[in-house]
Design a protein that fits this description.
Length: 233
């Protein structure tokens, strides 16, 4: 499986921040391992709660085109799982019988996505830090494979959310990931500059940056660019 271009850019941006060049090959290898467990797997998205970005991999160009056709359909229960902290079990029959899901369930079936499995990634303290969303070509792509797939992604199988968000709408979030990471890096850099210049803790510097932006009525990223630009001169 291969990451979409936006995910490559996002992981490159994140890798530069972490000084880690293994992020792209690591995610690809993990997705390939998952596909060996579930050969019907056509797409994977990993949504990070901490970074507020989504990284997406898909199987082939043809499948990308099919999934693109429904990427703007309203998102389903799996998007809520990261905030709710627990699984939401939804069957295909339930999706079709419930009016709010009927259109996107039919559209997803037309696009070749017939099953999903969402696995929350849970930290040691019980907090859901990410979700892994798997998209299958057949209705039974993930049947009996929850634990193996959870092991592959370091996720928690009992928290699985099945057959939800068939729209693959999380791909749109993945397309926004590079910009979000770049903005976060700029704000972090500006925070560090303020902390060093004023000899104050980083959290206090961040609060001052955000408060100054709020008072000026501008986005904090705009102010951060000014601070970094002044420092570079």
């Amino acid at each position: 499986m291969e990451p979409i271009p936006e995910t490559i850019a996002a992981l490159d941006e994140l890798g530069a921040q972490l000084d880690d060049s293994t992020l792209v090959p690591g995610l690809v290898a993990t997705a390939d391992s998952a596909r060996k467990v579930a050969p019907g797997l056509v797409g994977v998205s990993v949504a990070s709660r901490r970074l507020d970005v989504t990284f997406t991999l898909v199987a082939t160009d043809d499948e990308i085109a099919a999934l693109d056709a429904v990427q703007y359909v309203s998102s389903g229960p799996c998007v809520d799982a990261i905030d709710l902290g627990h699984g939401i079990a939804t069957s295909p029959a339930g999706l079709l019988s419930e009016s709010r899901w009927r259109d996107f369930a039919r559209a997803s079936a037309a696009a070749g996505v017939h099953s999903t499995l969402t696995l929350p990634v849970v930290a040691a303290d019980g907090e859901v830090v990410a979700t892994v969303n798997l998209y299958g070509r057949t209705a039974d792509s993930f049947e009996g494979r929850h634990q193996q797939l959870a092991d592959a992604f370091g996720a928690w199988a009992p928290g699985a959310v099945t057959n939800a968000d068939l729209s693959f709408s999380t791909r749109r979030a993945a397309e926004e990931a590079p910009g979000l990471l770049r903005e976060a890096a700029i704000v972090d850099a500006a925070t560090g500059i303020i902390a060093a210049q004023r000899r104050i803790p980083v959290d206090q510097a961040r609060a001052q940056l955000e408060e100054a932006a709020r008072r000026a009525g501008i986005p904090v990223t705009r102010l951060a660019r000014v601070v970094v630009g002044l420092h570079d001169e």
